[in-house]
Specification:
Layout (H helix, E strand, L loop, with lengths): L3 H20 L5 E7 L2 E7 L4 H9 L2 H31 L3 E8 L5 E8 L12
Antiparallel strand pairs: 1-2, 2-4, 3-4
Helix pairs in contact: 1-3, 2-3
Length: 126
């Protein structure tokens, strides 16, 4: 049985790897928070140079809409991979995945809802 910190660290590594493989670059920073049966992943600095250029050069609404459409499709294609990774790390099946990205800050949030809160052990005190 893992501690919540070990689960969070493993999810951070898995999500960074996913971003690297599917988008060609990893996030500048990633944090995961296990809150009961929710896993919240916050990735910062995820926009590629091409995406940043797209958002800056096209009309604001058009660039944002195109970027979000592409990211939604990438998340849907990669969803089985992410869900399997989360299940392997937590030992709990994923019920749903929610996602959004900010074209202004380059921050991406992924929320996994789990069937139940994963069993965790207490971290040893130092």
């Amino acid at each position: 049985m893992k501690t919540s910190g070990e689960i969070e660290a493993a999810i951070c590594q898995g999500m960074s790897r996913f971003e690297q493989e599917y988008m060609g670059r990893g996030p500048k920073d990633v944090h995961t928070h296990l809150i009961g049966d929710l896993l919240v992943v916050r990735l910062q600095g995820v926009l590629t140079a091409a995406e940043q250029h797209l958002v800056k050069t096209l009309h604001a609404d058009t660039g944002r809409a195109l970027l979000k459409q592409v990211r939604i499709q990438v998340m849907e294609v990669g969803r089985p991979i992410m869900e399997a990774m989360v299940q392997e790390i937590t030992g709990v099946k994923v019920v749903s995945l929610h996602h959004d990205i900010s074209t202004v800050t380059g921050e991406e949030v992924v929320l996994f809802t789990l069937v139940e809160a994963p069993g965790v052990r207490e971290a040893k005190k130092r």
